[in-house]
Every structure is written in C-alpha cells, then in structure tokens.
Design goal:
Elements (H helix, E strand, L loop, with lengths): L13 E5 L2 E5 L20 E9 L8 E13 L5 E14 L17 H4 L2 H13 L4 H7 L4 H13 L10 E9 L7 E14 L2 E15 L17 H4 L15 H12 L4 H5 L3 E2 L2 E2 L2 H4 L7 H10 L4
Antiparallel strand pairs: 1-2, 2-6, 3-4, 4-5, 6-7, 7-8, 9-10
Length: about 300
C-alpha cells in the first residue's frame, strides 16, 4: 500500500528551555510524492551547522551589541534541505564613558526561541519554506533576508556525512553567555550543536562555537573593527592556536569532532554521565583526543537531546 500523507510533510516546532540556553526541535520527514512507495531502508543525509555574528550595532560609551544567528540543517545528496532549524541571540553589554563595564556579566542570555516573539514566528515560516528546497531554489524564491539566507547557505555548505538518516530528528541547541566580559572587552560566547536522533540515540553531532569580542579603551571608545567578520572557532581552524601556542596535539575543531564522534550512539543521559575530573575527560581514550574541558560539550549535546 502506498503512503498517503504520513510522509508528505511532517513539520513540528517544540520549545525546550533551560537557564543557560535553549533547545529547538523542528524536523521534516523525507518529502515524498503520494505515488512513491516509502523507502525500505533509511537514506543518508548530511548534517550542517552555521553561526553568523554581527557586532556592528555597538556604540562607544553606550554598549557592545551582539546579534548571533545559528542554523542547523540536514541535506541530502541532491542538495535538498530535509530539516532546518534556526535560533539565535541578541545581547548587549553596557559600558560607560570611563571604559567600565556596567552590565551584569552573570545574567543569563535569552535566546530568540526563548523570547518567543515576532522573530520566532518569522523564523518558523522560513524554516518551513526551506524544507524540500535547495539553496539555489531558496535564493530564487527571494523569501529570506540577506543575513538569514547567508546563515542557511553556510549551514548547507558546511554539511558533512556524520551518520544521520533522513528519518532522524534534527535538533539544535545553543548556549550563549557574557561571562567572559572584562575591563576593556565585552565578549559574547555562544556554543552550538546540531544533533540528529534516532529515538533517543545520537546519530550525528556537529559542534561549533564563537567568541565575539568588542574591545574598548578607558574612555569607553570602541577599538574593535565592527565591520570585520567574526569567525567561529571552527572557521579559525589552525589559527585558533591550540597547537601552535598551547602545545596541544589537536586543534579545537579537531577536538570538537572527536567528542562528537565519541557521543554518537549515546543517549542524552549517557552523555551527561561521561566521567570527568575537573571538567576534563576522565576516560583515557577520550582524553587522548579531547584534552580541553568537556563539560560544556556535555551540557550542549544533552540539551540538544532534550535533557536539562
């Protein structure tokens, strides 16, 4: 018997919130024509993630301003987007005319999904419109503003075969915070993970992070180039300097990939249960390739799995 509408289009948008970030769930099933039979075996898809950061709204002796857009996608071999999630964060850190930070660096940063406002409603429409189209088709449709389209395009271009199937559920988690801000520098750090699940089990994991800095002098005048591109740790690649300056065996993006591969096949609770010592992996096999603190990765992936 042919499938009718069960796999024609499955769109869902659920919201899970936590004190340190948000997890978004929005996934499409494999789009099929009514006349086509359901596939007997799952078809593979690539998992992609993009973080786009804008600091151009910052003003001297007023505030450092951060606008981050995060997109997770799954893409099939034909370049068709099968799942699309969008989240982000807009945050400010106030500074005065003496160059002092006057904002609360410990305050949690609310994500776009948590705000549940006009931005979210528009993002939901765009996420739906992306499913079943290639990047080229989205560009031709002209439904997206330039910044959001750039983030989706970047996510699609970054997509890699990490073990996901089209039938898996796509998840996105981001954890932004301003705690790295200090005298002379306002910093928004944002960790992000695109995760696919089969049931409760991780089938693919893609991690990236950005540290967006706005520097200023003792008069509160901004010294950072506000028009410069803000690169993520993955985009920095070897320029991040863990091997060159820290003597590490693996660079940050390599360690993130090793951790992602390690947790593939686990559930969210199992990820949280990975043993650590002072934040680092206690398991010798994991520590051999991931020497940085892993607890932020654990919280991020667990959040994507729906575990608070």
């Amino acid at each position: 018997m042919k499938k009718i509408a069960a796999f024609a289009l499955v769109l869902a948008c659920l919201l899970l919130t936590g004190c340190a970030g948000t997890t978004v769930i929005y996934q499409s099933g494999d789009l099929q024509n009514e006349e086509q039979p359901a596939p007997e075996t799952p078809s593979g898809v690539k998992t992609g993630l993009a973080i786009v950061t804008d600091i151009s709204g910052s003003q001297s002796a007023v505030a450092a301003s951060f606008d981050v857009t995060v997109v997770a996608v799954t893409v099939d071999d034909g370049g068709v987007i099968r799942g699309c999630l969008i989240d982000g964060a807009a945050a400010q850190m106030t500074i005065d005319g003496s160059g002092a930070i006057t904002g609360d660096t410990t305050a949690p940063v609310t994500t776009r999904q948590e705000e549940n406002g006009v931005w979210l409603r528009r993002a939901e429409v765009l996420m739906r419109s992306a499913v079943g189209k290639t990047v080229g088709q989205l560009r031709a449709a002209g439904e997206w503003d330039a910044s959001l389209f750039a983030a989706v395009e970047k996510a699609a271009l970054s997509a890699r075969s990490l073990g996901a199937s089209a039938q898996d559920e796509l998840r996105l988690a981001i954890i932004p915070d301003l705690s790295g801000s200090e005298t002379g520098r306002a910093r928004l750090a944002c960790d992000a993970a695109a995760v696919t699940l089969s049931g409760d089990t991780v089938t693919s994991c893609y991690i990236d992070s950005v540290q967006a800095d706005v520097t200023f002098d003792d008069s509160g005048s901004i010294t950072a180039d506000l028009a410069a591109a803000v690169r993520t740790k993955r985009e920095l690649g070897d320029d991040y300097g863990m091997k060159a300056y820290g003597g590490a065996k693996y660079e940050w993006y390599e360690q993130a990939d090793h951790f992602a591969a390690y947790v593939t096949g686990m559930t969210g609770p199992q990820v949280l249960e990975i043993p650590t010592a002072e934040g680092k992996a206690a398991d010798a096999d994991l520590y051999a390739s991931v020497t940085i603190t892993v607890t932020p990765f654990q919280r991020l992936v667990a959040k994507a799995c729906g575990v608070a």
